[in-house]
Structure formats: structure tokens, C-alpha cells
Amino acid sequence: MTAGDKRKSSARDTTGEEQDSPFGIWLSRGLHQLFDDVANEPIPDELLRLIEEDRNK
């Protein structure tokens, strides 16, 4: 399963139908344009340290 397949299978509206409509495609592309750069940023070292400290408790 590719990332595209996973994304497509999880893109469902409230009726359970896939978002293959023009609006669904437009929305998905727009959200990716807005948020892909942020989602791909590295996690700050301080946050990783806090997560590791909590994991060790």
C-alpha cells in the first residue's frame, strides 16, 4: 500500500463514501499545499527530550 493509497482510503465523508468528488480532490490538494511543509519539519530537540523523559517514567 502506497502513501497515496493510504490517504485515499482514509479520505471519507460522513456517509462513508470516498472523497473522489471534484470538491474532495480540491480540498485535499489545498490542505496538502498548506500543511505538507509544516508536517515535514523536524521535531524540535526540546520536544523529543520531553517525550523521552515522559517515556522513562
Strand-helix topology:
Blueprint lengths: L2 H8 L11 H18 L5 H11 L2
Task: Describe the structure using short key phrases.
57 residues; mainly alpha
What does this structure look like?
- It is a single chain.
- The chain is mostly helical and 57 residues long.
- It has a domain at 24-57.
- It is built from three helices and no strands.
- It has helices at 3-10, 22-39, 45-55.
- The N and C termini lie far apart (36 Å).
Poorly predicted regions:
none
Radius of gyration, in Å, reads 17 Å
**Secondary-structure element sequence?**
HHH
Number of strands: 0
DSSP summary: helix tally = 3
Shape type = elongated
Into which percentage range does the β-strand content fall?
Answer: under 5%
How far from one another are the termini?
36 Å
Largest sheet: none
What would you call the structural class? mainly alpha
- The proportion of residues forming helix, as a percent range, comes to 55-70%
Instruction: Summarize model confidence as the mean pLDDT.
Output: 80
Brief characterization of the structure:
With 57 residues, this protein is mostly helical.
